[in-house]
Amino acid sequence: MSNWTRACGTDDIDNEDVIPVAIDGHDYAVYRSPDDDYFATDGHCTHEAFLLAEGLVMDNIIECPKHNGRFDYTTGEGKGAPICENLRTYPVRVEGGSVYIDIG
Amino acid sequence: MAATGNVERIVVVGTGECGARVARELRERGFAGVITMIGDEPHTTYERPPLSKSALISDEISPVEVLPAARLAEFDVELMSGKAVEFLDRDRMLAVLSDGGEVPYDRLLLATGARARTLPIAGGEFALTLRTIDDARALRARLGLGRSVTVIGAGLIGLEVAASARQLGCDVTVLEVAPRALGRALPAEMADVLVKRHAEEGVEVLCGVVPTDISILDGGFAVGVEGFDQPITADVVVAGIGATPNVELAQAAGLRCENGIAVNDRLRTDDTAIFAAGDCCSFPHPLYGGRRIRLESWRNAHDQAAVAAANMLDGDEQHAAVPWFWSDQYDLGLQHAGLADEAASAVVRDSGNGSQVRFALALDGRLVAASGVGPGTSTAKDIRIAEMLIAAGNRPDPEVLADASLPLKELIKS
Predict the structure, then answer these.
(1) In chain A, what are the domains?
(2) Do B104 and B251 share a domain, yes or no?
(3) B329 vs A11, A28, B104, B116, B156, CA distance in Å?
(4) Would you call B50 helix, strand, or coil by DSSP?
(5) Where residue A1 falls among pLDDT bands split at 50, 70, 90?
(6) What is the pLDDT of residues A25-53, one digit of tens each?
(7) B2 inside domain
(8) Which of A30, A78, B249, B363 is the Cys-Cys partner for A83 at CB 3.0 to 4.6 Å?
(9) DSSP 3-state assignment of B391?
(10) B209, B241, B273 — which closes off a domain?
């Protein structure tokens, strides 16, 4: 079931960066790619649950701020050790200067 | 893909972060032969960093597995826990176990780690040390509300244990022989931020203090201190005074050891079939003039595992990663990249939210080290960028480094 929820404004995120968004007690990470596309994933690393939004975004990769585990935030795919589990991603839609994510 | 036709059996001695990561890397690089991991601890692979931090303040310390059982099975790793390698028969290329078993190898990795140094004073055996999950459980069982704890050593482990014990309600005193805390790890200004935080939490860090002996007193302990009229009494004494690399196996096998098992920048020992990685090895670092160093950190174990795996499969990768470590004390997170020994000047970037990063520049303007401290992982991005600048030999504009309103990321793109 779809459940589109406003996460933030498009200008709240710098180009090639990420911000944390909490909705109903759940942490998400919302990304703006170098091409100004928007993406959303679970907020916590699948390795030791640190908040990803304090990590560095480079191209389509988010790096965990603690152990440098890497994910492709456009697909959620883990990029090698120490990551053992992929990251959950959420559908994103941009409308009228706002970023909406489908939290299901 | 590396030519691996002649490598069919790889033995990894050590089941810590490094050993476990090597097993994974070998499979991810396409190695289809036999991988045997041998470790003397009676456990599977687990992460050590939480043991002085988050795990120590939990009620029950459960291991964070580096390779969960499903992954061990997926990677088809033969894990021999609770087995000690007695010696290496280099002529026959066998790891000989203390129970007489023999494990043949084409390539062998020594990831034997390090062990906690014990206090070389009378009664030093009464001080607990922290390295393994069993050590952590033994220590945790003695901590609790109102217990008095004396920590000997104001290095990273000592201060992390002090913070964790304090969070559990213990009365904590830290004794340090050197004139200041964290002398080996951090610039004085950054160490001061942490020591000040300990003081705010009610933990006293006494520097320039020399413990002379530990004796049993009324069910607890008395720590004698030079120049003190009275000994310091405590329910629990912990020593965090560094670690000694486990080189004995290598030494007995006739491999060169210099403050660790000596390897080249490919992590190979003088025996072309034997490699070493992680806390146990010393290696020449290309970023620091080829100077031989040894690092005790999670990240180094992790990074070197990848290089060792590649080179055991006849690859030719150089280990050139920037040294990096972190610490957690209370809600403060510390991250540090680089080695500061060439530092000639420093630039401070204050983010205004209780976070600051201190950059160390060499005489020629190269960034050589950076330390950040602040709530949680608030300085992680800056330190990660600093790491890339250090690796590239970049000479960043000090004005950009100092101005928190200017994004550091531009520096890696310029």
Answers:
(1) 4-102 (2.102.10.10)
(2) yes
(3) 35, 26, 44, 20, 9
(4) helix
(5) confident
(6) 999 999 999 999 999 999 999 998 999 99
(7) no
(8) A78
(9) helix
(10) B241
| CA angle centred on B409, ends B356 and B391, rounded to 5° | 85
Question: Which segments within B311-366 are labelled E, that is strand?
Answer: 324-329, 332-338, 345-350, 356-361
State how far the Cα of A75 lies from the Cα of A63, in Å rounded to an integer.
14
Strand order in the sheet with B107-110: B77-81, B34-39, B9-13, B107-110, B274-276
Helix, strand, coil tally for chain B in percent (to 5): 30, 30, 40
pLDDT on residue B3? 44
Give the rounded distance of the alpha carbon of B310 from its chain centre.
Answer: 22
Q: Which of A16, A55, A81 sits opposite B380 (nearest CB)?
A: A55
CB B207 within 8 A of CB B199: no
Contact B107, B288 (CB under 8 A): no
A59 shares contact with chain B (CB less than 8 Å): no
Give residue-wise pLDDT tens across range B298-324: 999 999 999 999 999 999 999 999 999
Determine the Cα–Cα distance for residues B124 and A68; give it in Å rounded to an integer. Answer: 38
H helix count then E strand count, chain B: 10, 25
Nearest chain B Cα to A82, which residue?
B66
ipTM of this predicted complex? 0.91
Task: Tell me how many domains chain B contains.
Answer: 3
The DSSP result for B214-278, as a single string, is EEEETTEEEEEETT-SSPEEESEEEE---EEE--HHHHHTT--BSSSEE--TTSB-SSTTEEE-G
Last residue of a domain, one of B225, B241, B257: B241
Residue B218 lies in a domain: yes
Residue ranges making up the domain that contains B154? 118-241
Query: How does pLDDT run across B118-127, given as a tens digit for each residue?
Result: 999 999 999 9
With beta carbons under 8 A apart, name residues in chain B contacting A81: 21, 24-25, 302, 305-306
Q: What percent of chain A has pLDDT over 90?
A: 91
Q: Which residues of chain B have pLDDT under 70?
A: 1-5, 414
Over residues A73-100, the pLDDT tens digits come to 999 999 988 998 999 999 999 999 999 9
Tell me the nearest-neighbour CA distance from A103 into chain B, angstroms.
26
